[in-house]
TrEMBL record:
It is a multi-pass membrane protein. GO terms for biological process: intracellular protein transmembrane transport; protein targeting; protein transport by the Sec complex. It comes from Pistricoccus aurantiacus. Belongs to the SecD/SecF family. SecD subfamily. Part of the Sec protein translocase complex. Interacts with the SecYEG preprotein conducting channel. SecDF uses the proton motive force (PMF) to complete protein translocation after the ATP-dependent function of SecA. Residues 2-104 form the SecD export protein N-terminal TM domain. GO terms for molecular function: protein-transporting ATPase activity. Residues 438-602 form the Protein export membrane protein SecD/SecF C-terminal domain. It comes from the Bacteria. This is Protein translocase subunit SecD. Keywords: Cell membrane, Membrane, Protein transport, Translocation, Transmembrane, Transmembrane helix, Transport.
Amino acid sequence: MLNRYPLWKYLLILLVLLIGLVYSLPNLYPEEPAVQISSAQAGASLDQRTLERIQGALAENDIEVEDTEQQENSVLLRLTKTSDQLPARDVISDLLDDDYIVALNLAQSTPSWLESLAASPMTLGLDLRGGVHFLLEVDMDQALTQRLEVNASAIRETLRSERIRYRDTEVEGRTLSFTFSNEQDRDKARRLIQRDFPGFDYANVDAGRGARLAMTITDQKVDEIQDYAINQNLTTLRNRVNELGVAEPLVQRQGPNRIVVELPGVQDTAAAKRVVGATANLEFRLEARPDTPDNETESFAFRNNETRSATLMRDVILTGDSVSSASRSFDENGRPQVNINLDGTGGTLMNRATRTNIGRNMAVLFIEHKTRDRTVLEDGKKVVKRDPYTERGIISLATIQSALGNSFRITGLDSPAEAGELALLLRSGSLAAPIYFVQERTIGPSLGQDNIDRGILSVQIGLLLVVLFMLARYKLFGVIANLALAANLMLLIAAMSMLGATLTLPGIAGIVLTLGMAVDANVLIFERIREEFRNGMSAQQAIHAGYERAFTSIVDANLTTLLVALILFSIGTGPVKGFAVTLSLGILTSMFTALLVSRAMVNLSFGGKPLKKLWI
């Protein structure tokens, strides 16, 4: 019989529509403005007394807190009004010291029964949801200093292996200098070093009672080191952001020594700032023997007990750069630890250092570069000056029981959160040079909400015009087309929510375009039905022929548009990808609703009935 579907097909279409309805519903529950407070150190928490002080200060400033959620390592304050976010952040920041990070956030309000079905709202881009914008600066001077210190350690090992005696090592600016007791030792060392370290200008310097060799990095080598530092930091930051699970992040170079990081709609902006800005690294060193000369040793305190210290060798066995993977776990006593795997070179260096030092202590030194901001007056204006400093502390000092290889573990950590964060930093790669926050800008949800409101208005206007046109042109069939159009919009939102696709402002433009293309298929079908009916076909035959003969044209037109959308997605970036995603999904959902959903409604309305007239 013409224009009738079997029961299973109706049920299948109904099932798809029900799934679409469920997974599009979370988008009706908007996220709520919130302020998140986290400790600057992983594993620490906010005590109840401090929290009460914060709540009292907010109440004094007429900022209403709707709810307070104490999470594992942070506190989330839900606010009633979006406009209160910035004032609330300022009030809390003035109340707390630098040990806490205060950040704007958006808290989900999806009902628990939808969350149990893994239903969540669409991920919104930075232009819609807001987020954080970091401008980071790479310390190029420190990059040169670190490279010189690494070279100095390697040169000292070479000199010791060749039994060439030296007195002292000094790093100053771009110059590395060694002091020898006489000119013969200096000349012998120079011939040996020049062979393995060609990127320096060498000069003999008179040092009074001794002889000094000065090694200055060439301009070409400086450019190579700085370019490597910025590229390595870019790679490391991208890995860290990927570990955070941020959708559509932006990490790109700006100028010769700066990096821009944009994180749209992160759930824990405080943790993101802590992880992105962390410049921590590890060094593995042997504990110094009592008879080791003072110029070859350094003393450091323990991170978790500053009253305890140890004297270590200046030479570094290896750094966190050699770590290929790291994961958090617990030892046999339930204490947190980090399991580390080294790359091939790191494993060789570790084995070489430990197999000849069994019974000797080896320390894991935690190094973190930080800054202190201070305000000074320059020409009558307040200017913020940044003073960089470095914190070094021992997190583990253990006796070497046997020769170590590529795998071992780090113990002595304070909390599982600290172990997890250290594993993340090591896993994502260390920074080639310290980075500092030059600018931190929170793109507030008020701006994103304005974009959302305008985008929704454009969708509503476009939808209204299409609905009115279809009703005026095709009457009862126009009603069916409009219902299919509403189903198409619902399925598109559900698909984006289920796939975790990010909706941006250009993506809303793609939705508007999809609405127009969705009814285009119905226009082709309905015009074909009209033509067949005028040519003398019965109403049932005209309906059947309209859908069957328009099918090829609809598929061909949509496939060519889909190919263009896929090309835009593959070669485009940022906004272009957002547009391509919504356009691609919209094409697929519009073909489903135009060819199956509208056909099912036409079949239910007219199928199997004697028709002398078509309301089209």
